[in-house]
Fold each of these.
Amino acid sequence: MAQVEVKQGIVSGRLAPDQYAHNFSDLHPPLDRHEAFVEADRCYFCYDAPCMNACPTSIDIPMFIREIATGNGMGAAETIFEQNILGGMCARVCPTEQLCEEACVREEAEGKPVRIGLLQRYATDMAMAEDRQFFQRAAATGKKIAVVGAGPAGLAAAHRLAVKGHDVVMFDARPKAGGLNEYGIASYKSTDQFAQAEVDYVTAIGGIDIINGKALGQDFTLPELQEQFDAVFLGMGLGGVNALRAENEDAEGVANAVDFIAELRQSGDLSALPVGRRVVVIGGGMTAVDAAVQSKLLGAEEVNIVYRRGKEQMSASEFEQDLAAAKGVTIRHWMAPKRVLCEGGRVTGVELAYTAMVDRRLQETGETLVLAADQIFKAIGQTLNGDGGGLELAGGKIAVDEFGRTSVPGVWAGGDCATGGDDLTVTAVAEGRDAAEHIHAALMAR
Amino acid sequence: MERAFKAGWGGVVWKTLGEEGPPVVNVNGPRYGAIFGADRRLLGLNNIELITDRSLQINLQEMKQVKMNWPNRALIASIMVPCEEEAWKAILPLVEETGADGIELNFGCPHGMSERGMGAAVGQVPEYIEMVVRWCKQYTRMPVITKLTPNITDVRKPARAAKAGGTDAVSLINTINSIVSVDLDLFAPNPTVAGKGTHGGYCGPAVKPIALNMVAEIARDPETHGLPISGIGGVTTWRDAAEFLALGAGNVQVCTAAMTYGFKIVEEMISGLGNWMDEKGHADLEAITGRAVRNVTDWQYLDLNYVAKARINQDLCISCGRCHIACEDTSHQAIMKEKDGKRHFEVMDDECVGCNLCVNVCPVDDCITLEAMAPGTVDERTGRIVTGDYANWTTHPNNPAAKAAEPAE
């Protein structure tokens, strides 16, 4: 990393101008043709393949890899998109080391799984570069379906519904579609405006209108949608952010990690994006890692992730934790924020309490530590915006059954806003797709 | 040749001299095609090259020089001239004059030269082989090695003919007629020369099994047993060389492997063969040469009372399931995929016929093995006790031509 200029406070331009592009380039450069062939050759084409069973969208992984190996890249892309129309993004952001690649028998055999994610990217990139579409819409059904939230769940649902011949209108609160793919993941995982390219690729099927800047509860209500549409799918994610519940939480310099990540993703000039000299990120998930690593890449001198439990409980994958460590981020376990320290309303540090499990309850030990900081990011989880508007909730999320049905007839939900998922893009895709199948079945049975 | 000798090769076959006059011409486009394994590992190569396209005089001068520089290495001249006594009579003294240690009669090349009545066109007619070998023995004092083509139905016939003509040895196999692949844009065979292709000669690791069988056939044929054999066909490692020796070859020739990796591979072959012989206590090549020949027999003499079952080592198993699906779809449905509700692969002895397919498709070395059942145990598939007594097809009750038992040799 380039020399860090010692500038106090939250300032921009900490790096040499040419350093930004390098720091935020593709985390995993794509495989070229030769690399893809060599990697594809490693696949054993397992029977009832464990990788496929580990994939939330059940992509036929051995088949698409075999198709790559035989020079049939388009066939591979079709195999992937049949199950997961957002296969391109999932190839980039899936924690493969916890899913398909963890299940790969080569992981068992030699500790080196077939690089399934990169192979998936190879095939999907190839098809998307040629704008090759694999699906045709069925005859028009005359049914109209509202999809709220144009993120992974909504896009997957909209595409499947469009394939079935329904017309879809998507509403999204943000100026651009894509949801967390566009606003919520680290830049180095989705370079070159990939999220928007993917939205265009998915909607190219036709029959999908996207209306941006419209939020449920603000610009329209659920009953209004029910009145205008034959069915509603809710996939608006979690718009709220959990509070630290620590003293001085609203001091200048304390921000939501998700906002920082979104701002960074939308920034046209990273050198103009301010970041603290000493950054503390509170939380243990992917968002915490994305915010911490990107702070470091923007030139922060010292970045700490503080998590109140141990390494094993972190929801960030082992790979993400290693990535953070490799980029110079320090992860401190068993510590919880007690008080934000500030001078003149500005953050100067954070007082942390050491924690431990006592009688199966997380408790402070009484010892404390002060970390100097001029910027603190909160990454302790997101919440559903609003009260659910009459929908039954469970654990702060919209309660759904195995088909994605909510407590209100005619309304389905999936992705992060609904129960049952694990906050992964790929799971949201699976839920959106499967809810669409059920919506279709329900509408056509009428 | 100099580089090969410096790398440690014991001898070279200088391939292939034609008769005096304007030399042959080769195509100026692609001459080779290949098939590949994983990571473009070259498994099979074919060629449409002809014999040397340099003049006979230059070849002879160079051979003489090389032989002078390396007097203790073998130099064999490969020769292909028309099936006329005068042609052979003319070239043999010229070759002899170089100091070459012997000649190899190229009766094998299946492409190009065979259209002109040479190469495989001779090797496919035992009478011609015998005739030419006889001429060579008549017109030169040099030892004669007759190189055989595999493009025949029974390799013993040309070997017998070569022996009848007085050959000192046979070498085999030459390349196999092949179209290595088809260019699906041009709709033409590879290698494609200006839109057309022709069959070539196939060689490399892919042909080794064919070569081993043919070497063994000659080695165990009572009419040619004891005839020196030079083994050729896909020899790439010391292990390949050892296998050819075990089946009766006195030495081996290597071409494709050197073409793929360069001459340096001989270092591995020398050290590998030496280490294996030391490890197994084989004092010299005599100890291994031909040692497997007596174990090559006809199917009818195989022991039908021998019973083996596949065994999957669960500690080594990586649960890829290939053994299961191979057995399930194309063999005897003898490998379970689940046990106690969990993914688990295990052989069911009451279905296993011991076919070895699972062993061959398993990606993990030694994970699945075929184990002989001990005499006295019961084969669950047939319900019969394994006797341990040898019995073959010749005496089997299902054989309408059954007769009294014959030994395996």
Note: The longest strand of chain B covers residues 11-17.
Amino acid sequence: MSTATTTPAAAKPRLKTSAMIASIAGEGQRTKPAPFGHALVELAKARPEIVGLTADLAKYTDLHIFAQANPDRFYQMGMAEQLLMGAASGLAHEGFMPFVTTYAVFASRRAYDFVHQTIAEENRNVKIACALPGLTSGYGPSHQAAEDLALMRAMPNMVVIDPCDAHEIEQAVPAMAAHQGPVYMRLLRGNVPLVLDEYDYKFELGKAKLLRDGADVLVISSGIMTMRALEVAKALEADKVDVAVLHVPTIKPLDTETILAEAGRSGRMVVVAENHTVIGGLGEAVAGTLLRAGVVPSAFRQIGLPDEFLKAGALPTLHDLYGISTDAMVTSIKGWL
Amino acid sequence: MDTSQLGHNVPLTERAYRIRRNAVLMGEVQGQGYIGQALDIADVLAVSYFHAMRYRPEDPHWEGRDRFLLSNGHYAIALYAALIEAGIVPAEELETYGSDDSRLPMSGMAAYTPGMEMSGGSLGLGLSIAVGIALGLKRKASDNRVYTLFSDGELDEGSVWEAIMSAAHYKLDNLIGIVDVNNQQADGPSTQVMAFEPLVDKLEAFGWFVQRVDGNDMDAVVAAFDAARDHPEPKPRMIVCDTKMGKGVPFLEAREKNHFIRVDAHEWTLALDALDAGRTA
């Protein structure tokens, strides 16, 4: 099909799928390098029980920074995620605190039963930090963990965290360690956007925080979608739309008290934004919370990934396509008002 | 305390008899159970708990204990029988086996039972956990060992081979695997469900120190455990135990082989009688 390769002159420039290690930061955005790796190195100085394990993805999860600083506390388990989780359980059994890294797809999908049985069921003190959460890879479904939050929050004992930026990841690492029991954290690696330091923000496990108030729309979001929501709020100021942003970095246990208090304020549309399939993630968790409490906002909308296998391509293209880019969110919210 | 000397005046064959007897009594309570497996592995458990392992019955979490992982959680009836004989679980709990609120559920779980180090049941987990425990013991400069019992059917699980590869990579000479080759899994004879032979050659090629013994020959099992402990090479150790389902109860040994051996209500007493008849002590 010769026509398929012809680009019409009027079409937008065709973006290329970025390398897996590329940053998700936008052009010109402030970033910080490898916040997880550096925070873990710092924490490990005070906590000798911390060890690091990975399944052939140290460099792609920033765990290599920990490995370089603590070669004798690092275990390379090879490309074997079931072994990775089982061995972490065993080390925790012996009193160590394993920080385990891989990609979100492999921890949540390939190794699910091992996480479930050897870590969660035995309530082992294992911290699982996973890169490429949600739609942060253009490689197609093999690397797109669109359902990781749904899978992990369905697991008893598991705490689930979806941090927004470098600032939050730095604070989440010691908070994970302070919690006794298994934790799953979505990891941003490489040059990670820096946003929340401008908001006098402090991560607290299990707490949602109102980052900005607004009278017309309440966006409830986690992870990188909070970064987007803050941009959306600024963009909609020009249209005289007043947007509040409630950041919910702990998906489980959910801060239902704060969510109900904010969603219960009358006259605001509630929009839940998540970098995750609309099935089983933050959106449905919030919806269930509101329904069970009898709190019915003037409108309830979800921004999230569709229930389909996502395409391969450049991330900005895909985020536009699936409605989770800032521009797409602005368009959606204006259309709903 | 070196508990390998505990009750040293009781012969291992008598220990094995009592383990089998405990298992049959539990099977009678429940009217069912993996009694075929319990009977085949009783000799290995007798050697584990009354010859090889260090532990304190009154303190199941004693740091200086050797760890025993039951990967094949459905063998819980056998391990409970051994834990009762070892004094880790009180004998009076035997009659609660598989009942509501019992500490002895049908499938072994860590949170339920003293001396149960892992939650099995989902097959193929044990060796991976053992790798982590063995690494952890080495980190602590502990000279304790981790013994892991698993079944030949579990060899079908890819994760088992992930663990086998990594144990050799990390030279885990404190890890002793015990595979029960009774050649029976859910859908039929293990060798027919998925060919795993030549098992010794495979394991040796993966870098393990491997012995294959008749798992119902007490002297052979003792010698294998001793050699696994004393072997000088920095390799993980595997003891491949060929066992006979229903061992010690001739009418169950002769019964058509199944993963789950059928035992009629009146036969539990007959099984106890058969064990008594074969008692050598």
Note: Chain B touches chain A at residues 67, 109-111, 117-119, 121-122, 124-125, 127-137, 139-140, 158-159, 162-163, 165-166, 169-170 (CB under 8 Å).
